[in-house]
Amino acid sequence: MGPPAGHEWRTLVLVNLASIMERADEALLPAVYREVGAALNATPTGLGALTLYRSIVQAACYPIAAYAASRHNRAHVIALGALLWAAATFLVAVSGTFLQVSRRYLTTIAVCGRMADLLGLA
């Protein structure tokens, strides 16, 4: 098996860059717990709950995305997922309190559940 073709090479690079960005995102919050906790008046337990909510959102959305990608245009599914994740990130960024952040993560979980209903998975 030879080296990947042009578009395969580009896809490989993009997938690896996305993986690196995701790992950086996962490592970012624990590195700035003190600053984020002070800004949101949250305890370390509360910040751990935020990390849990984030993981639940990902766990809930990955099977939906995989199902949608198997039945629809994958580029559109990826674009929609990126748009939804960017919107969720923006809403969390403009949150002023810990309660707002928690609600927005839980709302994202509800959106993933609604998408599952629309796709007939639930």
TrEMBL record:
One of its GO terms (molecular function) is transmembrane transporter activity. It is found in: Membrane. SUPFAM superfamilies: MFS general substrate transporter. Residues 11-122 form the Major facilitator superfamily (MFS) profile domain. InterPro entries: MFS_dom, MFS_spinster-like, MFS_trans_sf. Keywords: Membrane, Transmembrane, Transmembrane helix, Transport. The chain crosses the membrane at residues 77-99. GO terms for cellular component: membrane. This is Major facilitator superfamily (MFS) profile domain-containing protein. The gene is ga16001.
